[in-house]
Design goal:
By secondary structure, the protein is mainly α. The protein has nine helices and no strands. The termini are far apart.
């Protein structure tokens, strides 16, 4: 944990807490639990023929991000969560039990957004707003350090680009599937 990480978290806890933000940040963070909002959005995009490629890009980016973050990076880095080592009370009912680095919520959000951007979908703009809120919520709730969130965003952007590359490679299969009644 760096001094900057600590300073930012302490500032958020001391200066920004409010009942409205408590509610908003809990709600935004809950949307990202288990990637639910991103998975549902990917399924919807996959079901619509004109957005199928964007949906495939998003789904592939989410799968890549989940593997990279949860199965590879978190166990290797094994960084404890801020509430485990600092005198901070997190605002979540169920405390995360996995490692802190990188932020999976942020990674999934930015993977989805980057895949939309790469797919030339106009939906990337509202997705970016939600992704930024998601990242901020993880700091506000004291379940991640700022460096966890930044790393999660970077990993997510990489996975979004990779998901788009994989979807383009699978385009002939997706197009054949789209033509079937």
């Amino acid at each position: 944990m760096s001094a900057v990480d600590t300073m930012i978290l302490v500032f958020i806890q001391d200066k920004l807490r409010s009942p409205f933000l408590d509610w908003l940040m809990c709600a935004v963070s809950a949307l990202g639990s288990n990637g639910l909002v991103w998975i549902c959005a990917s399924i919807i995009l996959l079901l619509i023929p004109r957005t199928r490629m964007a949906g495939a890009s998003c789904a592939l980016s989410l799968g890549t991000e989940a593997i990279l973050v949860n199965l590879i990076l978190k166990p290797i880095v094994a960084r404890p969560r801020p509430f485990a080592v600092m005198d901070i009370t997190p605002l979540v009912a169920t405390l995360p039990t996995d490692w802190s680095f990188p932020s999976g919520h942020t990674g999934a959000a930015f993977a989805f957004t980057a895949a939309l951007f790469a797919s030339h979908s106009k939906l990337w703009k509202p997705s970016l707003v939600l992704s930024i809120l998601m990242a901020c919520s993880r700091l506000y709730l004291a379940v991640h350090y700022p460096s966890d969130v930044i790393a999660g965003a970077m990993v997510g952007i990489f996975c979004g680009w990779l998901g788009w590359i994989m979807a383009r490679a699978a385009a002939p299969v997706l197009q054949r599937t789209a033509m079937k009644p």
